[in-house]
Amino acid sequence: MLTGCAPATPTAAVVGALALLLGACTAGSGAEGADPASHEYRPGLSAHPHVPADVTSAPVVVMVPGGSWRSAEPAGLEPLAEAFADRGVFAMPVVIRAAQDDVVHPTPVEDVLCALADGAATARDEGIEPERLVLLGHSSGAHLSALAALAVDDYAPRCEDPLVVPDAVVGLAGPYDIRRFADAASVLFEDGADRDQWDAANPVLRAGERPEVPFLLLHGDLDDVVPPSFSTQFGAALRAGGHAATVQVLPREDHGSIYSAEAAAEPVAQWLDGLDGPASDEG
């Protein structure tokens, strides 16, 4: 597991230099050959389901990797997905497109929504009815997951499965205010993108939308890549917007360890157990 991906507190001057390091943070050696077999949910984009045993209903958690909006390799999320399945959660890390694929916003968010649609359909194919449709993201993947849940009505992707509405979000060390992470986040946009485009893709500015969606935000107190203040600020904005938002700053965790099974599996599973109500209707 990679930890301590960058040595310095990010400022506008150094965030650009950290961008590639952020891409490495979520990458890692993970399990291969998930059951059922990995598959494409969109052409060229893979999903890796981990199915809990002996359940007929479960939360469906689609897991979106970080990569500073430049890449999105989910291998490092596999141990956490396995730990979720052991706890009765259907978990599915996915590949989404990023700047290295010559795409910009809204394409990465559309991929996230198609992955969630595939997660719901795959769970049902396995005889599991979704209890909740949850997006979990790390770093830039947390930003994209939050945006997909809050601003879902802005997007109309063409997916291979019926669209569904995300109804809960777990964010791990997310840069939710992209104004504060502008050097790295600039790759999310075409050159010359205006303020309105940036604001539309900024979760902290959209925290008042879809207040029925609960959020769990986890952050490590040793994170020197994306400081914990990003989560505490976003949590406050969400609560002001009417959301149920839980923020946990975990001791002795950093940007690379926050998505480990040891750090995240139990608090996320406990939070999911505490959520009431059925999954959202398909949209």
Quick structural overview:
The chain is of the alpha/beta class and 283 residues long. The protein has one domain (15-273): Rossmann fold (3-Layer(aba) Sandwich), CATH 3.40.50.
Note the topology:
Blueprint: H1 15-26, E1 39-42, E2 45-47, E3 57-64, H2 78-86, E4 90-93, H3 107-125, E5 129-138, H4 140-150, E6 168-172, H5 182-185, H6 195-200, E7 215-220, H7 229-240, E8 245-250, H8 261-273
Parallel strand pairs: 3-4, 3-5, 5-6, 6-7, 7-8
Antiparallel strand pairs: 1-2
Helix pairs in contact: 2-8, 3-4
Domain BD-FAE-like: 56-237
Signal peptide: 1-27
GO molecular function: hydrolase activity
Category by helix and strand content: alpha/beta
State the oligomer: single chain
User: What is the H/E string?
Assistant: HEEEHEHEHEHHEHEH
Q: How far do the termini sit from each other?
A: 37 Å
- Poorly predicted residue ranges: 1-34, 278-283
Major beta sheet summary: 6 strands, parallel
Mean pLDDT, rounded to whole units?
A: 88
CATH-level-4 superfamily name: Alpha/Beta hydrolase fold, catalytic domain
Number of helices: 8
- The CATH topology assignment is Rossmann fold
Describe the 3D structure.
- By secondary structure, the chain is of the alpha/beta class.
- The protein has a single domain, classed as Rossmann fold, CATH 3.40.50.
- It contains eight helices and eight strands, in the order αβββαβαβαβααβαβα.
- It has helices spanning 15-26, 78-86, 107-125, 140-150, 182-185, 195-200, 229-240, 261-273; strands spanning 39-42, 45-47, 57-64, 90-93, 129-138, 168-172, 215-220, 245-250.
- The strands form two sheets. The chain has a six-stranded parallel β-sheet, sandwiched between helices. Strands 1-2 form a two-stranded antiparallel sheet.
- Helix 3 (107-125) packs across helix 4.
- The N and C termini lie far apart (37 Å).
